[in-house]
Amino acid sequence: MKHFLVVSHGSRSPKTKQEMTALVAKLKEKVRSGQVSYAFLEIESPSIPQAVDNSVKEGAAEIVLVLNFLNPGRHVDEDVPRIVQEAQKKYPKVSFRITQPVGQHSKIVDLFLDMM
Questions:
Q1: CA angle at residue 98 from 38 to 108, to 5 degrees?
Q2: Could you give the angle at which helices 48-57 and 80-90 cross, rounded to 10 degrees?
Q3: pLDDT tens digits, residue range 10-62?
Q4: Fold designation for 2-115
Q5: Which of 53, 60, 61, 65 could form a disulfide with 3 if both were Cys (CB 3.0 to 4.6 A apart)?
Q6: Beta-strand relationship, 2-8 and 62-67
Q7: Do residues 54 and 66 touch, judged by C-beta distance below 8 A?
Q8: What span, in angstroms and rounded, lies between the C-alpha atoms of 38 and 10?
Q9: pLDDT tens-digit readout, 59-73
Q10: Domain range list for the chain
Q11: Dihedrals φ, ψ of 92, to 5°?
């Protein structure tokens, strides 16, 4: 089974987790194949390792980390890949993939235009 983890930075503001919960609920309505949940890099829970553990317990054979980050930076380029490398060692039979940050998506210009 494929499992999608929408990964965000995390914040002390409760609004962040509420928005992630709402986003994942909308994604669950649209995703036809696989499970969808969320994880946070820091501050909030579940952490990425916790979410990976939960996904594996639920039978995930493939985990796609969907980066809810606008641009590359230390977290995207170093922290998340390091966490995934550790998870790959822990779960060698599970396939992992990390998406590009949202800001690199081909439709980002259309999104910004829609917001203007």
A1: 85
A2: 30
A3: 999 999 999 999 999 999 999 989 999 999 999 999 999 999 999 999 999 99
A4: Rossmann fold (3.40.50)
A5: 60
A6: parallel
A7: no
A8: 11
A9: 999 999 999 999 999
A10: 2-115
A11: -65, -20
